[in-house]
Specification:
InterPro entries: ATP-NAD_kinase_N, Diacylglycerol_kinase_cat_dom, Lipid_Phosphate_FormReg, NAD/diacylglycerol_kinase_sf
Bound molecules: adenosine-5'-triphosphate
Strand content: 35-45%
Number of helices: 9
Organism: Batillaria attramentaria
Oligomer: single chain
Shape: elongated
Order of helices and strands: EEEEEEEHEHEHEHEHHEEEHHEEEEEHEE
Protein name: DAGKc domain-containing protein
Pfam families: DAGK_cat
Mean pLDDT: 87
Helix content: 25-40%
């Protein structure tokens, strides 16, 4: 299907192809331009009529197509293209484009949960100035909840009416994502009559996707997911509606569910680092650079036994040693050349163990891991114990990709 409209007084041919629309026109300089925009990247087509001060002419209507453009470093931005014609042509073109956009399922009703105390305490401003305009452009209705205390988000999700909700968006850091993921999973178990405390019970995955707008201190989940912590990029990933599966792992101790983990499960040093960082929250994001140094200097080795099922052979193996830490990456890390890259929704988890060694060697191992150097992980399909009774159960939940 093709339409001929105008762009800056010159003819512009718009052709609707199977998966994209092309716009072909000449610039004032005479240069020929062809813009090919996939339907999957289109956000909205707006028709604007003549203002009352304009003299009506045969082409005083316009269609502005808003779409997503890729920039360097995995960032996305909104771009627009305007063509002019009469009322019939403009409304017809806009209707055809809107129809193509709705072929892929996109969210229309969202619950947005903001932690005003995340990171540099700019989450509310970030949402209002950068995210809300993108949601409005795409006709998304959002119910905004600003938390006033820790755990409020997960408690609220136990009773909130989620029947018509297409997704929950967090504006904060990894901690808020963790809270919302826990809240949604617990709600899903309750709704299905599953006893979440039972370590043998299969976790029922939640149908409601989670979107993450980075406004925290670490923002690791979103960086792994989108390759950037750019706010507008995250908002655009949400509105385009494509989801990715990620793992959640339940951790049980003493016959009770401790929590669902979604990023790293750190036993020993890593857990101590996170615990110490929380005590220095007043330092803001810089606590993650300073506090770990003192925690590593006061490291302690434990007698640990790790039993796991090998990802490749399926054999159950056991390692006993004095270790500083056993870290399980729920968002696994796969090897790509000499680098470690995040892998979402993998059937295996990666485990890193730090056996007793000199401080120099230990620091080297930790910095290799921080720089994502390949070669220091074990890939396991099930980790059953690490010194304590901590069986893990895997589930998959959806994130907007
Ligand atoms: N209104 C609030 N006041 C204080 N703490 C809150 C509030 N709402 C949520 N929290 C808690 O704050 C913790 C940290 O929040 P969040 O992850 O958003 O920020 P961050 O710690 O700065 O970022 P990151 O987790 O990426 O380092 C979460 O565990 C959450 O439970």
């Amino acid at each position: 299907m093709a339409f001929v409209l105008k762009k800056s007084s010159k003819a512009c041919q718009v052709t609707l192809l199977q998966s994209s629309a092309t716009f072909e026109y000449q610039k004032r300089s005479g240069k020929h331009v062809l813009v090919d925009i996939p339907y999957s990247h289109m956000l909205a087509a707006e028709v604007v009529g003549p203002t009352c001060t304009e003299v009506y002419s045969s082409r005083s209507y316009s269609v502005t197509l808003h779409y997503v453009k890729s920039l360097s470093n995995n960032r996305l931005r909104v771009s627009s293209l305007e063509v002019q014609s009469d009322f019939d042509k403009c409304t017809n073109l806009a209707k055809q484009l809107e129809e193509q956009m709705t072929v892929t399922e996109r969210p229309k009703r969202l619950v947005v949960i903001i932690n005003p105390n995340s990171g540099k305490k700019r989450a509310e401003k970030v949402f209002k100035t950068k995210v809300q305009p993108v949601f409005s452009l795409c006709g998304i209705h959002s119910t905004v909840i600003v938390t006033s205390a820790p755990k409020e988000a997960s408690e609220l999700l136990q009773t909130l009416d989620l029947a018509d909700v297409d997704g929950v968006v967090t504006v904060g850091g990894d901690g808020l994502y963790y809270e919302v993921m826990n809240g949604l999973l617990l709600r899903t178990q309750k709704d299905h009559g599953v006893n979440a405390d039972d370590p043998e019970a299969e976790i029922i995955p939640t149908d409601i996707p989670i979107g993450i707008i980075p406004a925290g201190s670490g923002d690791w989940v979103v960086q792994y997911l989108h390759g950037t912590r750019d706010v507008i990029t995250s908002a655009l990933h949400v509105v385009l509606g494509k989801t990715s599966l990620t793992n959640a792992v339940s951790v049980h101790q003493g016959g009770k569910l401790s929590a669902y983990a979604g990023l790293v499960l750190g036993f020993g040093l890593q857990g101590d680092i996170m615990n110490d960082c929380e005590k220095f929250r007043w330092m803001g994001p810089s606590r993650y650079s300073v506090v770990p140094v003192s925690t590593v200097l006061s490291r302690q080795a434990f007698d640990v036994e790790v039993e796991y099922q090998d990802d490749v052979t399926g054999d159950v193996k056991r390692i006993s040693d004095q270790m500083y830490g056993v870290d399980t990456y729920i968002i696994s890390k796969g090897e790509q050349g000499d680098k470690l890259v995040p892998v979402f929704g993998d059937s295996a988890l990666s485990v890193y163990m730090s056996s007793k060694c000199s401080l120099g060697k230990h620091v080297q191992q930790l910095s290799d891991l921080k720089e994502n150097k390949a070669g220091c992980s074990l890939s396991i399909s099930r980790l059953s114990a690490c010194g304590y009774d901590m069986p893990f159960v895997l589930a998959l939940i959806k994130l907007w990709l």
